[in-house]
Amino acid sequence: MLSPFKVMVISVTISIAFYLIVSILTGSKVNTFGLSLSTLIPAVISYPMSSLLIQYYKKIEVQRNELERLNEINNRLISIIAHDIKSPISGVYGILDLIELETFSKEELSYYIHDLSGTVDNLLNFLDDILQWSKAQIENKRIEPELFNSQKTWTQVLALYHHNIEAKNINLVANDLEQPIYADQGSYSFVARNILHNAIKFTPKSGSIYIDLTKKGDRTITTIEDNGVGISEEKLNKILHSKEWVTTIGTNDEKGTGFGLKAAAKYIEIMDGKLQIESTPGKGTKVIIDLPGNVPD
Fold it and tell me: Which region holds residue 229: left if phi is over 0, alpha if psi is between -120 and 50, else beta?
């Protein structure tokens, strides 16, 4: 965008050139008064007008960027609702449906009610975290990394998807979940939920999911691996880098928004992390999250 000074110079130059051309064509004498008017008038008009227009354009640009940011937050919340809230609620509904059949003994009924209570409690805690996270996003607060223990995050995430894992009879193995991570805890939780949800979604019944956290030097490596349907390199690149939202139906007809993995990759990048995805169609997918494991000097 041209500065007001450049606009003024161009306007004055055009005005003087026009005055000289008209003078030559009409045979009029070029004089100081004419040149002065040709200089003064466009300068007085063009400079303030261009300044106002530039300020107005910048204001519109700021508003446009803010609308895009809020729209992206809205998309993230839709993804969270679709992935992270709908699935646990479906699990709760399944338990209530079983209880309604009234085919349980007193001991079995007590077990399912206790299980239901735990699921609802985890869901309420999760909703509270999401409300705090979304409020910070809307208020445009900077992501503030902190050193935290990953155990609590993973306990909550696994509890959230407990019924989904059981429903598909997935063999889930989790090792060394208690590791230090220096990142934004809410964002790490978002990433963990989305990647685990995808692993569950694309793992067939009686399949396996492996979760491992390892400390390597000053980094913490989170690995989530499944033996599911896998994904081609072409489609993976499209998911991560295309502006389109690419969705795929899961092995149990689970639906998605196509937003979660793309958003997760962005968060990892913001938190000074690295995301690596290794996938082979028909064999499974391994997702590796590399994040700082201690406070940088």
Answer: alpha
